[in-house]
Design a protein that fits this description.
Length: 91
């Protein structure tokens, strides 16, 4: 079980204000799937359907994808992205 620290007024510090955990999950999943697709990985039909159903999120995330060398494997890119996201949250 993960416990989250709360600050003044019980505000959860690990989540963006106004975003539910489900919204955060969707945003992260869209980012990872777009990154994998950008790196040339074949997405499953269900992953493609997920991206189509969240087209608005996809559009907003496209410009925020980090630029990485095409030579890197998709797994390396996803791990680098995850680390950068974790660092951003700590700041």
């Amino acid at each position: 079980m993960i416990t989250r620290a709360t600050g003044a007024g019980g505000m959860n510090r690990e989540e963006a204000p106004g975003k539910s955990p489900e919204d955060m999950y969707i945003q992260q999943k869209v980012r990872v799937l777009l990154m994998l697709k950008k790196m040339g990985s074949n997405l499953t039909p269900s992953e493609e359907a997920f991206l189509r159903s969240y087209a608005g999120v996809v559009h907003s995330q496209m410009s925020q994808l980090p630029q990485h060398n095409i030579d890197q494997g998709a797994e390396d890119v996803v791990m680098a992205f995850s680390r950068s996201e974790a660092e951003d949250r700590r700041q």
